[in-house]
Write the structure tokens for this entry.
Amino acid sequence: MSYVANVLSVMIASPSDLPEARDAVEAAIHGWNVAHSHNRQVVLLPWRWEDNAVPTLGDRPQALINAQGVDKSDIVFALFGSRLGSPTGEAISGTVEEVERAEQQGKHVHVYFSNGPLPNDVDVEQLTAVRNFKEALQKKGILGEFSSPSELNYEVWKAIEHDLAALDLGAPGAPKRNVGVDLLVQPRRERELKGYSKQNKPQYSTRHWLEITNQGDQDAKSARIEVVDPDAGMMLANDGELADIHRGQMRHVPLIMLSGAGQPAVRLSWTEDGEEQSKEFHVS
């Protein structure tokens, strides 16, 4: 079924040492589209220079990438690992130039630095340049970190939701249909101080929970939640009964995280227009 939607361009920028992280960001964008584009009437188009830039002459390569990618983007995700990249003639690296240009144009820019293990053949000069750039950038905003590409799925979805709220796109050209119940499930965690050791060193524990939001225009009646695979290392800390989740309302579900194999997922069930509905959500 066709539908009218607001279409946003999302640029993925990074030096050459993070191909898996770039793939993870693109996969997260596609995943968001599958889950939300129809109901939210928003489609996100990932843009990567290696896939989408059109070969052409007439200017320095980075300027052409800027014109085709940065200038036409609405959102920019920039990733850094152990390399900053090569100078462009205008900036210390291509990715840095893209970040600075996007920021100057008022784009929504999200910058993430890898804190995972360094490669055995790490270029010390490049690594130092990354750390210097990170230090300078910390004075201009909040930076993100990731230890593995799999962590980027949650970070990308969180950033997208933030940007869509800020953009306040409103309905596209055609009248918006009723969306019914539209549940968003996001994993959350917070480190808490639980006491001090005998050596007077602080000891921490991590609290985990799911944040469930009904973004739709109908109430989710008699909602309940259950873990799909108990062997995946996640348990509910309560009985899973959520009662009614009214439109615009949020519920917190406490979790107990254990060691396990597989990808944790939950199944939400509810009653809508007198009919039983259910949907599964991956929450890693």
